[in-house]
Design goal:
Elements (H helix, E strand, L loop, with lengths): L1 H15 E2 L2 E5 L2 H10 L4 H8 L3 H8 L5 E3 H10 L12 H13 L6 E2 L2 E2 H33 L2 E6 L3 E2 L4 E10 L6 E6 L4 E7 L9 E6 L5 E10 L6 E3 L1 E8 L1 E6 L1 E2 L2 E4 L15 H11 L6 H12 L2 E5 L4 E5 L1
Parallel strand pairs: 6-16, 7-17
Antiparallel strand pairs: 1-2, 2-3, 4-5, 6-8, 8-12, 9-11, 9-14, 10-12, 13-17, 14-15, 18-19
Helix pairs in contact: 3-4, 8-9
Length: about 325
């Protein structure tokens, strides 16, 4: 009896190790069942374990029940179970397990006709795919919307002007979208009197001017002629924006000049020396020359430029041009 037992032990060791490589016996039917519950293909398992699909098929059909322990560990990891759960069990232990599962275990949870494991796996896969797609679409939509509208708005104001003297304000809008209607809104400071708007629009609010420009074009100039009241040295602040709608409403702030200082000088006299220099007359035409209806004011600038200077009368609010 002793000799027989020793022979059996040697045979067991040989079944666990072949040529020094650790081997294990797996339950092919259980491997197949776990794979199908997870919704995995034989190709997926073959890739994870680094074997062929034929090898996976032979394992599941018990043609090769003994495999390398290293492959068994990879196989168990791919099936998301411990190695012991795919090992072949003695017949008595397997029967006991089956009896226990029949009598004590509740029926497996299912959803939509598939196992809960498979359902959760499919749901996680779908979410993993959809979330980046949704985020990408949101980013693309914002980028597309902002890049479709290329628009800038710049206000031109005199640096200073005498209280009671009329001065011009120009708002130049540049856009590559020629057929896009624009709503230009200008908020003027308190104490400012609007003399005339260019183009002409009804002044519905003493502090807010609005133009709708439908004619299109790469550059549109709107503006107004105004007169300020206040003490010398006070500063008047201006603000505005341009609203457009292409898919959704967007607003672009008006940049450029935003303040005007009250001082006893002509609005074209930048340095306040009571003469209009060559640079100053060119600056006046550059800023305000595109405003329609400003011919009389620009003619006065030219007359001062051709003379020796001017004098401001604070009592009568008039300019006297010196020869």
């Amino acid at each position: 009896m002793y000799i027989i037992n020793s022979h059996q032990n040697q045979m067991t060791e040989q079944s666990n190790t072949i040529s020094g490589v650790p081997m294990i016996r797996i339950d092919g039917a259980r491997v197949k069942r776990l794979r199908e519950e997870l919704g995995l293909t034989q190709l997926y398992l073959a890739t994870a374990v680094e074997v062929t699909t034929d090898t996976i098929s032979r394992w599941e059909n018990r043609h090769y029940p003994t495999i390398k322990r290293e492959n068994g560990l990879r196989l168990a990891e791919a099936l998301e179970v411990a190695l012991d759960e795919i090992l072949e069990k003695p017949a008595s232990e397997e029967e006991a397990t089956e009896d226990t599962s029949l009598s004590e275990s509740p029926p497996s949870s299912t959803r939509a006709g598939v196992s809960l494991k498979t359902y959760n796996r499919l749901l996680n896969t779908a979410l993993a795919v959809m979330i980046p797609v949704v985020i990408g679409l949101v980013i693309w939509n914002k980028t597309q919307t902002s890049s479709d509208i290329d628009l800038s708005a710049i206000r031109s104001l005199p640096t200073a002007c005498a209280a009671g003297l009329q001065f011009p304000v120009a708002i130049t809008v540049k856009s590559s979208n020629r057929d896009l209607p624009l709503l230009i809104r200008e908020t003027v400071p308190e104490g400012l009197e609007i003399i005339r708007t260019m183009p002409e629009v009804p002044v519905q609010n003493a502090r807010i001017l609005k133009w709708i420009r439908r004619e299109g074009g790469e550059q549109m100039v709107s503006g107004y002629l105004a007169r300020a009241a206040g003490a010398a040295g006070s500063v008047m602040e201006f603000s505005g924006d341009v609203a457009v709608r292409q898919g959704k409403k967007q607003e672009f702030p008006v940049s450029g000049d935003a303040s005007l200082r009250l001082a006893p000088v002509h609005w074209a006299d930048i340095d306040g020396d009571y003469i209009i220099s060559d640079d100053e007359v060119l600056e006046a035409y550059d800023k305000f020359g595109k405003l329609s209806g400003l011919a009389r004011e620009l003619d006065q600038v030219e007359e001062i430029w051709m003379g020796s200077g001017y004098r401001w009368d604070a009592q009568t609010k008039t300019i006297t041009i010196l020869p």
